[in-house]
Backbone:
């Protein structure tokens, strides 16, 4: 409804700013009130996409099955990509620490992300039903390959993001020139620089839960939750969303860097002089891939399995073997 209102000419809550706008522009919506018409994608294109999302939601409400589940997953992917969670990861702390931030854009992205998560929950419910009674013999063991990818998902941002940004916050020109370091220190306050360096590192530590017991069973020291099973979606949905966002950001960054090199806007000597900044772009791609594979491993490990279903499956196989060994009746009878 708000997109239809904007496309029809209303401007309440609309912003035309981007991340490079100054504080005064952000406060006024960068002249959004004076726009006669909106570009296609923020305007009628977004209205058309909203109509598709409503149709998918109606399909998911009226019927179950693979088609509805695939449609819900597609809607989830579209909304998550449009929300660009990685932008939220940096812009929200920046705004909290006083940096000029377009909160209208932040709220819009949060709503998109919330819609994507709701479609993900619907897709899970629309998927094939498994056993309703989980096994009670404790959390299943985690394969070694899942552990390796989970530790990789922690090591990559620690070494590729936190270390260089921490050194820059301390005034060490690691992989950049002194002029670039001066520009960074002038644009970013020390508290914000510390947050940029530390917050992704702390968030990456949650990846270890995909490969350890505390990712399946809440630790005993947690009040009210200690000893209870961790809901699978509580781990899978955030990890999956972040993995998709990181991977998309890394691919977009590499594509933009390649395009600027081909166009001559960026030269190889400039790239080598600021290699530490350029290296953070593939870090996002590697981080997203490692987190995505670890999330897939967690999904495979924690899939519901039931003693009832397994026993019935065993009984059916035994019955099948006995029927094969039993003498067949004479067709003449």
Residues:
């Amino acid at each position: 409804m708000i997109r239809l209102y904007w496309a029809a000419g209303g401007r309440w809550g609309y912003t035309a700013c981007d991340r490079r706008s100054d504080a005064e522009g952000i406060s006024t919506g960068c002249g959004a009130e004076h726009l006669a018409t909106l570009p296609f994608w923020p305007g009628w294109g977004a209205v058309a996409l909203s109509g598709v999302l409503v149709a998918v939601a109606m399909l998911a409400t009226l019927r179950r099955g693979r088609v509805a589940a695939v449609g819900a997953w597609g809607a989830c992917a579209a909304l998550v990509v449009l929300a660009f969670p990685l932008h939220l990861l940096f812009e929200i702390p920046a705004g909290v620490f006083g940096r000029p931030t377009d909160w209208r854009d932040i709220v819009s992205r949060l709503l998109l992300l919330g819609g994507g998560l709701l479609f993900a929950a619907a897709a899970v419910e629309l998927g094939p039903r498994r056993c309703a009674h989980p096994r009670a013999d404790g959390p299943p063991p985690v394969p070694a390959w899942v552990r390796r990818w989970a530790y990789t998902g922690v090591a990559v941002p620690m070494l590729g993001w936190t270390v260089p940004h921490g050194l820059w916050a301390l005034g060490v020109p690691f992989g950049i020139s002194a002029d670039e370091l001066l520009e960074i220190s002038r644009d970013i306050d020390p508290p914000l620089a510390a947050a940029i360096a530390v917050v992704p590192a702390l968030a990456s530590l949650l990846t270890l839960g995909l490969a350890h017991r505390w990712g399946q069973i809440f630790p005993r020291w947690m009040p009210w939750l200690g000893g209870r099973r961790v809901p699978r979606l509580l781990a899978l949905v955030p990890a999956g969303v972040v993995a998709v966002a990181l991977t998309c950001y890394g691919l977009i960054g590499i594509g933009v860097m390649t395009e600027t090199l081909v166009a001559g806007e960026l030269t190889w000597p400039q790239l080598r002089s600021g290699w530490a900044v350029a290296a953070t772009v593939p870090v996002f791609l590697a981080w997203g891939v490692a987190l995505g594979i670890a999330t897939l491993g967690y999904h495979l490990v924690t899939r519901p399995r039931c003693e009832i279903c397994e026993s019935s499956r065993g009984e059916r196989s035994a019955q099948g073997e006995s029927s094969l060994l039993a003498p067949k009746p004479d067709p003449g009878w």
